[in-house]
Amino acid sequence: MRWTQTLIPTLKEVPADAEIISHQLLLRAGLVRKLAGGLYTFLPLGLRSLKKVEQIIREEMNRAGAIEVSMPCLQPPEIWQASGRYETMRDALCRVKDRAQKEWVLGPTHEEVITTLAAGEMNSYKQFPKNFYQIGIKFRDEIRPRFGLMRAKEFIMKDAYSFDTTDAGAMESYRKMYDAYTRIFARCGLQAFPVEADTGVIGGNHSHEFMVPAATGENDVVYCEKCGYAANIEKAISGVPRTAAREVGPEIEKFATPGVVTIEALGKAPYSVPANRQIKTLVYLADSQPVLILLRGDDQLNETKFMARTGAIAVRPADAKNEADQALFTALGAKPGSLGAIRNVPTGWKVYADERLRGANDMTTGANEDGFHFRSVSIERDIRVTEWHDLRTVTAGEPCAKCGGSLKIRRAIEVGHVFKLGTKYSEPLNATFLDETGKRLPSVMGCYGIGVTRTLQAVIEQGNDKDGVVWPVTVAPYQVCITPLTVAAGSAPMVLAEKLYAELTEAGIEVLLDDRDERPGVKFKDSELVGFPIRIGIGEKSLAKGEVEIKARAGAVQGVSVDAAAANVIEWVRSELARLNAPAKPVI
Ligand code: ATP
Ligand code: MG
């Protein structure tokens, strides 16, 4: 391909609305253009890299025994109602109406569609196991599309769905996908690692996310370097001890705390109640029902854990400044800062307490009377706790629950997610089969997603320097850029450029010939910005020495004799490809 023939609109300036480096480089290197918030057009170079990621995924899915299908984006809402997700995923669903005013769902994921297919076609145990996958467009009505392709309204996902007759079979399918994902990300040149994950509205009971470490990621991962434990903070546990038991007075004692409305203020003189001896009381609305959540004063609630433990789908803190929520505080008798769960808890309000408070005594908590607290509180004696759960957010430095090592936390980008689903979809959507004995059973499912467009951007987020993108050769839009410094037809640099182009192309190397009549500086800067793994610079000066200038994107310029140039580049590209594609170890 010739530069002048394609469209590579590189930008010198950093686009104002691109906050993270990979988003800036997607735009600056001329890979994508924004149509509207969360909607992007792939330009020729961006599309080439995207297709490469897709192809790596396809090869590894096929290798793991999965079979490719293609399902419609437009889906009937009835199947979403049957699975229950018409409600639970309501906010994320993009919906459209046809001319007859019938509503359709634009698929955010395809469990309902594939399970409907299996219900119709997979009726005998002899047809199992199967793993269907597709690579296609998904729609999600994200509240805040941002960071380019990272969180888009329309994006490309690889989604796969396994069907087994037994739980053990489903675990085996899960393991194959887990292994395939490890290979896929390695081949994309990414350092991705699996972490234990929450299952969210997708459901199921076993799940891992594949994470790419990056300061700009939207996930916090808790990990232990000693034993290898790693989990999304939404799921992570630690070995922090429960609150130490102490002597406690025979009954609670009310005391005045005028103007004290924070944990910190109560920690200061004259009260001097340390945060770990305070009970923090949060008022939440869980699926519109008011509830109280109790945590130790030095702990923070993790809302995802709360949702996972209680099954609540929509949760939010009650807001004392919001008029609609005023009645909740009136019912309790106090404003935030003086809230507690000892008195005045309206009947019907559930009280959830964090496990770390179990058995805690000699605690202090709000009295549900502005300006007053109770001390000498023994939680199990004085508070009617409806349910105990692990609800707190793990913090760095806590002991690992598995080995006692010190936990660390880092930001990461979620590029893939594998779930063991069990029968969550096969039961409501009737995906059943007859076993050897003629008994009808629901199939045991798993589902496996990779954000293809997000993965592409993660490659850039991980591979860049001050000059631009640094692609792994497996995902680069072209492997080699030939840059003649004069492009006049018949000039020595151009003649050699054409010759090398032909030789490399013949050898299966992907080459872009920069035939623009531009200053060398402009051409070099652009090739660094786009990030071709190898550049071959051809100028009159080096030609006079019988050389071309070869530069690996992350290396220095090297003079190489004209005769050795093609072989040198072919060898480099092939060995890099072999190195990155190496981890592919067959599973079946
Ligand atoms: P997130 O937590 O980032 O919103 P998710 O957990 O809802 O993602 P899944 O349902 O697990 O996403 O989807 C599978 C994969 O699709 C994710 O691992 C991610 O890589 C990708 N993905 C999800 N939402 C988006 C989006 N809005 N834009 C781009 N990729 C996405
Ligand atoms: Mg996910």
Name the features:
15 helices, 588 residues, 27% strand, 5-stranded mixed β-sheet, 9-stranded mixed β-sheet, binds adenosine-5'-triphosphate, alpha+beta, binds magnesium ion
Written overview of the protein:
- The chain has 588 residues and is of the alpha+beta class.
- The strands form 8 sheets. Strands 3, 7, 8, 9, 10, 11, 12, 21 and 24 form a 9-stranded mixed beta sheet that branches. A 5-stranded mixed beta sheet has the order 16-14-15-17-20, with helices on one face.
- Bound molecules: adenosine-5'-triphosphate and magnesium ion.
Mean pLDDT: 96
* Ligands, deduplicated: adenosine-5'-triphosphate, magnesium ion
Structural class: alpha+beta
> How many β-strand runs?
31
* First-last Cα distance: 39 Å
Overall 3D shape: globular
Residue share in helix = 25-40%
Largest sheet: 9 strands, mixed
Unreliable residue stretches: none
Number of helices: 15
- In terms of quaternary structure, what is this? single chain
Query: What percentage of amino acids are in beta strands?
Result: 25-35%
* Radius of gyration of CA atoms, rounded to a whole number: 29 Å
Which SSEs are present, and which pair or pack?
Blueprint: H1 21-28, E1 32-36, E2 39-42, H2 44-63, E3 67-68, E4 74-75, H3 77-83, H4 85-88, E5 94-97, E6 103-106, H5 111-121, E7 130-139, E8 154-164, H6 167-187, E9 193-196, E10 206-213, E11 219-223, E12 230-232, E13 253-256, H7 263-267, E14 279-286, E15 289-296, H8 303-310, E16 315-317, H9 326-332, E17 350-354, E18 363-366, E19 372-377, H10 379-382, E20 387-389, E21 408-422, E22 432-434, E23 440-442, E24 444-451, H11 452-462, E25 464-465, E26 468-469, E27 480-484, H12 492-506, E28 511-513, H13 520-530, E29 534-538, H14 540-544, E30 547-552, E31 557-561, H15 562-581
